[in-house]
Each structure stands twice: as structure tokens, then as C-alpha cells.
Write a structure and sequence with these properties.
By secondary structure, the protein is mostly helical. It contains seven helices and no strands. Helix 3 runs antiparallel to helix 4, helix 3 runs parallel beside helix 5 and helix 5 runs antiparallel to helix 7. The C terminus is likely disordered.
């Protein structure tokens, strides 16, 4: 009887131990099945797919490069347009300078003409102190004096010593032109009128020269400003092209691999624009 009871107790202990081991295994398996999906999900969230991240970085780099290329092309077109405008402005400035030089020559020539007319008027004015020759006061004498005045006025107008308006006044015997004067006195009046006309022409030439100088200065400043703007735009375009990032497929974020070699032709055009 005691042996039977002892065997029963031994078998119950063994069965209990086996059941406890099996229960522990079941609990461990259940805990592992619950915890493993959450850990995998957390790992997936914390560590994204390397291949997907690389594709996003490549697309961002390519988009940035395309924007920079478009900007560089826009700057290059702007530089070419400004360079063309600068060349046209330079042609205009040269033409304005030529006009100013021609105006300067006109000022010098009119001044020389005035000095000659003034010298002639002074010589005749000095001779006016002599007594006037006496001639008979007859209609024929007055007719001769009028003919002399008309011929002398037309000759002076042909030599551009008198204006057309002054010639018209002389032929119409108005505005101080008196055909009854002695030819010597008429010659003095003609010389003085020629001197006044030469002085007026000189002053008008001076005014034209000042206007031509102002126009030349404005044109030169405009051409200089356009040349500077064209050079600056070409320099910006060349600098932007030199620092463009490399195309997709190369190492993204590498500054040494993203540098683009400058184009010699573009450097030449930028220097020429300046």
C-alpha cells in the first residue's frame, strides 16, 4: 500500500511538471507572436527603405539641376539681348560723337567768318571819316545807287554774307536799306550787316554744338551702362553654369563631382560683351 501511494505521488509530480513546461512554452509563443509584429512595424517606421530614400534624393537633385539650368539659360539669353542693345547703342554714340565734332568744326568756321567780316567792317568804318565824294543829285544818280545796292547785296548773299531775308529787305529798300545813300556808305552798311549775320551764325553754331555735345554724352553713358549690364549678366550666367550639380546617377551631395567645367566659348562671349 505504501509503495502504491509513493508511485502515485511520483507520477502526479511528473505530470504537473510536464504541464507547467507546456504551459510556459505556450505563453512564450503567444508573447512572441504579439510582440514581433509591433517591433517589425516600429523598425519599418524608424528605418525607411534605403532604395526608396535614394530615389527621392535623386529626383530632388534632378529637379534642382533642371531649375538651375533653366535659370542659367535665361540669364544667357538676357546677356545676349543686352549685348545686342549695347552694340546698337555704341553705334548711336559714335554717330552722336561725329555730329558733335562736325558741330565743333562749324563753330570754328563761323567764328573765322565773323572775324573776317568784322575786320572788313572795321576797315570801312575807318574810311568813313573821309568826306563823302560829291556827285550830282539826279534821278540817274539815284538809279545807279539803287542798282549798286542791289548788285552788292546779291553778291554778298551769294558769298553767304547776308541771309535771304536780308537780301529781300535790301531789294525791297526796307529795314534800314536806303538806295539813296552813296555807294561808299552803302558798302559800309553791307559790311556791318555781313558782320552781324556772321555773328548770328556763329552763335547758332555754338548752340548746335552744345546740343550735340549733350546728345553725345547721353548716348555714351547709355552705351557704357548697357555694356556693363551685358558683362554682369554674362558673368552671372557663366558662374551659374560652372556650379551646376551633376546629372542624376552620380553621387548626390558631392560638391567635387557636381562642379561643371566652364565653357571657353561662353567665357569669350562674356568678355566680349564687357
Amino acid at each position: 500500500m505504501e509503495n502504491l501511494l509513493f508511485d502515485f505521488l511520483i507520477e502526479v509530480t511528473r505530470a504537473t511538471a510536464v504541464w507547467l513546461v507546456l504551459l510556459g512554452l505556450v505563453l512564450a509563443a503567444g508573447i512572441w507572436l504579439v510582440v514581433r509584429p509591433r517591433a517589425a512595424t516600429a523598425t519599418a517606421v524608424d528605418q525607411p527603405n534605403d532604395e526608396s530614400g535614394y530615389d527621392v534624393a535623386v529626383r530632388d537633385a534632378e529637379g534642382r539641376r533642371e531649375r538651375l539650368v533653366a535659370r542659367a539659360a535665361e540669364l544667357h539669353r538676357y546677356a545676349e539681348e543686352v549685348a545686342v542693345a549695347a552694340e546698337r547703342s555704341a553705334v548711336t554714340a559714335q554717330r552722336r560723337r561725329d555730329e558733335w565734332l562736325a558741330a565743333q568744326e562749324a563753330v570754328e568756321s563761323t567764328w573765322q567768318a565773323y572775324e573776317e567780316a568784322d575786320a572788313a567792317a572795321r576797315r570801312l568804318a575807318a574810311a568813313a571819316v573821309l568826306p563823302e565824294p560829291r556827285t550830282p543829285r539826279t534821278p540817274a544818280e539815284y538809279a545807279d545807287r539803287e542798282r549798286f545796292l542791289h548788285r552788292a547785296a546779291m553778291a554778298a548773299c551769294t558769298r553767304q554774307e547776308l541771309t535771304v531775308l536780308q537780301l529781300s529787305d535790301a531789294l525791297a529798300n526796307r529795314n534800314g536799306w536806303d538806295p539813296r545813300r552813296h555807294p561808299a556808305e552803302q558798302e559800309i552798311v553791307l559790311r556791318r550787316a555781313a558782320r552781324d549775320s556772321a555773328l548770328a551764325a556763329h552763335r547758332a553754331a555754338e548752340e548746335r554744338e552744345r546740343a550735340a555735345w549733350r546728345d553725345a554724352e547721353v548716348a555714351a553713358a547709355a552705351a557704357r551702362s548697357l555694356r556693363e549690364e551685358a558683362f554682369a549678366a554674362a558673368s552671372r550666367a557663366a558662374a551659374l553654369r560652372r556650379w551646376l550639380p551633376s546629372p542624376a546617377g552620380t553621387s548626390v551631395g558631392s560638391a567635387s563631382e557636381g562642379v561643371r567645367q566652364p565653357d571657353p566659348a561662353r567665357r569669350w562671349r562674356a568678355a566680349r560683351a564687357g
